[in-house]
Amino acid sequence: MENARTAVIKLFILAYFFEYSKGIDVSFRRYCKRSFLGDQDCYFKVREHWDFLKFRKWLDNLDPLGDVSLRITCTEGGSLYIPWPMRARNLKRLEIKNCLLRGYFDEHDVKSRYPDSLEVRSIVNSVTEVSLLDWVNVVKSMQSEKSYTCGQETLVRSIVSNNTYSFLNIPKLPGSKMLELLSEISDSFREKGSHVKFMDSCKKRFWSDQDCFFKLLALNLSSNPIWHLPEELQRWVEKFPQLEYLDLSNCKLQSFSFAKPTPHGREKAIYINMQNNNISEVPTDFPRYSTWSPPILIDLYGNPIP
Ligand SMILES: *[C@@H]1O[C@H](CO)[C@@H](O)[C@H](O)[C@H]1NC(C)=O
Ligand SMILES: *[C@@H]1O[C@H](CO)[C@@H](O)[C@H](O)[C@H]1NC(C)=O
Ligand SMILES: *[C@@H]1O[C@H](CO)[C@@H](O)[C@H](O)[C@H]1NC(C)=O
Predict the structure, then answer these.
(1) Where is the signal peptide (predicted)?
(2) Taking CA atoms, which of 26, 45, 131, 271 is between 20 and 30 Å from 239?
(3) Is 303 in the pocket of ligand 3 (CB under 6 A)?
(4) Which of 91-95, 180-184, 199-203 has the lowest mean pLDDT?
């Protein structure tokens, strides 16, 4: 009896080392609930540092593998190494909270081995570390694939709330060049001080913009320090043809205006939540928004409109 038990334990240890020797981090398994069909529902509480690439590698070796859901919450000082656009095998849902995100540009020139799969992405109360030097190189080389710059086109729901950017590796440049650079940056990293960037925006000069976010139904940008409505959102129908819900509540908007959509064959309205901003007047064509095709419906509750 005792021998049998020892044998089982030995076998277990052997299996463990076999996986370990292949570089598979067996410790991920403990944090994931596996369903009968191989779905993995994973939750990590990160205190120090967590590496998305190791997790991705672990997923590579699972068989069968169903849909993967990954939730990560960091405690004070916790950080993730997670290069954009965060692809992994069968990853359908990704939720990140309270983390410092590193490695943003690290895979911009790497051809992804994984097809788009992400449907829901939520990044809340987080800080993204961006190397300015890398950013300059990415813009300069412009070699990034569309799939890199557009993020994942399978995305249906995106939540980006109270996120800021911190910049590293600020290049040494003469004053005028620096100004030029900063104006380019302020174009894509919108806003003073906190440097909010619309990661998802498909800016023409930076990325080829066909089909970006074709499937996106809901975009939640609530609680971001947004002072001006970016062009991409003013002309929302071009970048987000299916968008039905846009949450811009609790931002710092002082004004807004939307472009009249070009005929698009879509009748379904978009609902835009602009509650609790600092909007004191509406554009002159505002009364007609709801008659446009598609109609634009805006909730302005909690704004200082006289
Ligand atoms: C916004 O996120 C920061 C962490 O980046 C956090 O300290 C702060 O409490 C958050 N603010 C709100 C209103 O949740
Ligand atoms: C949008 O995000 C905010 C903050 O994360 C949340 O409170 C709100 O419920 C979200 N809106 C929707 C419609 O999910
Ligand atoms: C609201 O906007 C006014 C200008 O229209 C500005 O003076 C004020 O500081 C803003 N308030 C907040 C809380 O941002």
Answers:
(1) 1-23
(2) 131
(3) no
(4) 199-203
Which residue's CA is the closest to the ligand 3 atom numbered 4? 254
Q: Is 125 in the pocket of ligand 1 (CB under 6 A)?
A: yes
Q: Does ligand 3 come within 6 angstroms of the Cβ of 278? A: yes
Domain borders along the chain are 1-26, 31-216, 243-306
Ligand 3 atom nearest to 304, measured from its CA: 1
Angle between helices 132-141 and 175-188 (to 10 degrees): 80
Token match 């947004």: residue? 226
> How do 127-131 and 157-161 pair as beta strands?
unpaired
- From the list 210, 204, 205, 258, the residue with the least C-alpha distance to 230 is 258
Alpha carbon distance 168, 159 (integer Å):
25
Residue nearest to atom 7 of ligand 2 (CA): 222
Return the ligand number nearest the Cα of 245. Answer: 2
pLDDT at 24: 46
